[in-house]
C-alpha cells in the first residue's frame, strides 16, 4: 500500500459518502494478467458504474444519494460517476469495476449495504457485495493514482470460485437490472459465448432475443441458431446477421483487447452509445 492511499481515498469518500472508492494498482509480477490490469486502471469514469436512467452530463452529484450536496470541484486524481447515467462495464467477467483490495468506504455505508456473504470457499463475496451496493444506489469512484501493489499468486482465494458460479450471478444480475427495460435485443457473437448466454436466459427473456450478429461468414451463411435443448415446438430459431445488418441494443459477448483492435473498430464504426445501445458481457 502506498503511504498516501488512506489520505487520498478518505478525501474521495468525504465527497462521495455512498460510494465505494477504489484506486489504480501496480501489478506484481509486472506482466501478470496484463489485459485485466489495463481494464482495472483505464476504465473511464462513465464505465465504473451501472444505474438505470439516461446518460446525464453532471459529474458532481452521486446518483442515488438524496441530500448529499455536490462538491464544487474534484481533485484531478479522483474519477467519479456521472449522475443519472447507465454504466455497463459491471456485467463483464472481470467483476467489480474497482477491485476489492482497493475498496474504501465509510462504516455507515458498509453497514447499510450489509455484511459480506461468509458462505465459505467458492462464494464470490466481493461480487455479491458489489451487486448489493449497486442495488442500494451506491456509486463507484476511482482515485487515479497507483496506490496499491496487487500481487498475483496461483493459490489466491479467487481461484477457488467456479466460473459457472460467477456466470450464474452475472446472468441473473443482467436480467434484473437491464433486460427488463429492453423490449428486444441482439446478442453480438454467434459463437460459443453468445449461444451460452442465450441458453442461460430465462424463457421470457430469450424471447426478446431477435438475432445474433457476427463477422464470421460461415456463421452468417448458416443463417440461424437453433436452440436444440428447448422444450418449445417448433424449436426456436434465431437469425444470425452481419453486425452491420443487426439492430441495437446489443449484449456484447466478445472479449475486449484480443483482436488487435478489429472488434473495437467495428463497434466504434456504428457510433453507438454504451449503456443505451450496448453493454459488454464478455
From TrEMBL:
<protein>
    <submittedName>
        <fullName>UDP-GlcNAc:betaGal beta-1,3-N-acetylglucosaminyltransferase-like protein 1 isoform X6</fullName>
    </submittedName>
</protein>
<dbReference type="InterPro" id="IPR029044">
    <property type="entry name" value="Nucleotide-diphossugar_trans"/>
</dbReference>
<dbReference type="GO" id="GO:0016757">
    <property type="term" value="F:glycosyltransferase activity"/>
</dbReference>
Amino acid at each position: 500500500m502506498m503511504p498516501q492511499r488512506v489520505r487520498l481515498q478518505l478525501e474521495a469518500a468525504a465527497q462521495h459518502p455512498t460510494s465505494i472508492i477504489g484506486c489504480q494498482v501496480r501489478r506484481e509480477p509486472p506482466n501478470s494478467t496484463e489485459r485485466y490490469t489495463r481494464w482495472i486502471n483505464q476504465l473511464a469514469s462513465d464505465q465504473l458504474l451501472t444505474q438505470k436512467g439516461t446518460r446525464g452530463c453532471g459529474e458532481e452529484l452521486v446518483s442515488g444519494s438524496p441530500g448529499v450536496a455536490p462538491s464544487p470541484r474534484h481533485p484531478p486524481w479522483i474519477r467519479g460517476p456521472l449522475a443519472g447515467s447507465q454504466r455497463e462495464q459491471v456485467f463483464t467477467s472481470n467483476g467489480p469495476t474497482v477491485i476489492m483490495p482497493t475498496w474504501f468506504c465509510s462504516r455507515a455505508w458498509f453497514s447499510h449495504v450489509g455484511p459480506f456473504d461468509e458462505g465459505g470457499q467458492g462464494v464470490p463475496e466481493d461480487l455479491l457485495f458489489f451487486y448489493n451496493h449497486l442495488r442500494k444506489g451506491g456509486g463507484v469512484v476511482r482515485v487515479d493514482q497507483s496506490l496499491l501493489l496487487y500481487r498475483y499468486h496461483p493459490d489466491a482465494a479467487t481461484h477457488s470460485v467456479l466460473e459457472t458460479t460467477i456466470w450464474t450471478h452475472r446472468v441473473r444480475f443482467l436480467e434484473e437490472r437491464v433486460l427488463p427495460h429492453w423490449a428486444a435485443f441482439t446478442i453480438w457473437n454467434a459463437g460459443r459465448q453468445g449461444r451460452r448466454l442465450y441458453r442461460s436466459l430465462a424463457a421470457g427473456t430469450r424471447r426478446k432475443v431477435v438475432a445474433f450478429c457476427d463477422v464470421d461468414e460461415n456463421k452468417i451463411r448458416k443463417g440461424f441458431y437453433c436452440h436444440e435443448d428447448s422444450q418449445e415446438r417448433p424449436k426456436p430459431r434465431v437469425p444470425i446477421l452481419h453486425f452491420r445488418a443487426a439492430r441495437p441494443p446489443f449484449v456484447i459477448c466478445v472479449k475486449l483487447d484480443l483482436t488487435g483492435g478489429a472488434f473495437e473498430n467495428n463497434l466504434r464504426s456504428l457510433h453507438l452509445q454504451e449503456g443505451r445501445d450496448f453493454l459488454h458481457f464478455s
